[in-house]
Design goal:
With 335 residues, the protein is an alpha+beta fold. 31% of the residues lie in helices and 24% in strands. A hairpin with a 4-residue loop joins strand 8 and strand 9. Bound molecules: 6-O-phosphono-beta-D-fructofuranose and manganese (II) ion (MN).
Length: 335
């Protein structure tokens, strides 16, 4: 792999190396097309009238933005025709989306959050698309929801597109993490960040502190120590960042280290966490682990969770190894 090569070259070479059939490369190409279309829409924003609310709630009971709906349609349309997927699932759709009659069905399943961080759309702050690819269980040609309920360790690929000052695509197929930047003049993602690694240590944390009264003791302890800085148990000062787009947060951590937390809290006892396992936590955890970081609920490795629902939520603590392991140790000690 060489800096400056296109993502198509990159995946094709990967495919040759592992003796793949090209099916997977084809899926990825379609997903990339959708990401470029979404990037375009996000980039033009108010000029093409796509900002603001869609006037409905999604399955999660969250107000949908016009761009949530547009991005979801773009993902579906770019990916349904190719013949290599059996079904898709999205944050914006309650039920799974089997590939409609009229298109051939393939052996992969695609899950996605079409536009993550959508509270940031109208204020022109970075948002992103997250995706995860699973194999459809052997012999299944008519998949149902339960065929998606595989632990994150079974992902064959995970990635995200970040629509920031540049549009970037960050990808893993289980062989490390590579980052590509969209060159709009040629319409291609170009390899700019080969072999991304998360530094093991960090002095930067990321958490929505407005929830602090609902946190559990181990998280409170960790954050209190960060806030106490030089004068506390840690003996060093920490910095804090909160973008409120998980994609931007994870990208910062992949670039310069950090710890991101959306922990379990008691705000709404019915919810196991804030972030969704199948199309937020799992793909991001796969990427983070492949870059040398750690991703945990505080009590368990995220990728090992046996899912019970495609829209289930989980606590998420991820990033630089030594800090995440410290938070996990605090959970253990609290038991
Ligand atoms: O999709 C969930 C999400 O938008 C994440 O991208 C982000 O990390 C989080 O929610 C922001 O949460 P809050 O609104 O509590 O800041
Ligand atoms: Mn999201």
């Amino acid at each position: 792999m060489a800096i400056g090569e296109t993502i198509t070259q990159f995946i094709t070479q990967e495919q040759r190396r592992v003796g793949g059939t090209g099916e997977f490369t084809a899926i990825l190409n379609d997903t990339l097309t959708a990401c470029k279309q979404i990037s375009n829409a996000v980039n033009k924003g108010a000029l093409i009238g796509v900002l603001g609310g869609a006037g409905a709630d999604n399955v999660q009971g969250e107000a949908q933005k016009k761009l949530d709906v547009i991005s979801n349609d773009m993902m579906i349309q770019a990916n349904e025709w190719g013949g290599h997927l059996a079904a898709m699932a999205s944050e914006e759709m309650e039920d799974i989306y089997p590939i409609p009659d009229g298109y051939p069905r393939g052996k992969y399943l695609l899950l996605f959050d079409p536009l993550d961080g959508s509270s940031n759309i109208d204020v022109n702050i970075s948002v992103g698309t997250i995706f995860s690819i699973l194999r459809c269980p052997d012999g299944v040609t008519n998949p149902t929801m339960k065929d998606f309920l595989q632990p994150g360790t079974r992902q064959v690929c995970a990635g995200y597109a970040l629509y920031g000052p540049s549009t970037m695509l960050v990808l893993t197929t289980g062989q490390g993490v590579n980052g590509f930047t969209l060159d709009r003049n040629i319409g291609e993602f170009v390899l700019t960040h080969p072999g991304m690694r998360i530094p093991e240590d960090t002095r930067e944390f990321s958490i929505n502190a407005s929830n602090s009264r609902f946190w559990e003791a181990p998280v409170r302890r960790y954050i209190d120590e960060c806030l106490a800085g030089k004068t506390g148990a840690r003996g060093v000062d920490f910095n804090m960042r909160w973008v409120a787009s998980m994609v931007a947060e994870v990208h910062r951590i992949l670039t310069r280290g950090g710890i991101f937390m959306y922990p379990k809290d008691t705000k709404d006892p019915k919810k196991e966490g804030r972030l969704r396992l199948m199309y937020e936590a799992n793909p991001m955890s796969f990427i983070v682990e492949q870059a040398g970081g750690v991703a945990s609920t505080g009590r368990a490795r995220i990728l090992d969770i046996a899912p019970h629902d495609i829209h289930q939520r989980v606590p998420v603590i991820l990033g630089s190894r030594n800090e995440v392991e410290r938070v996990v140790a605090y959970h253990r000690e609290a038991n």
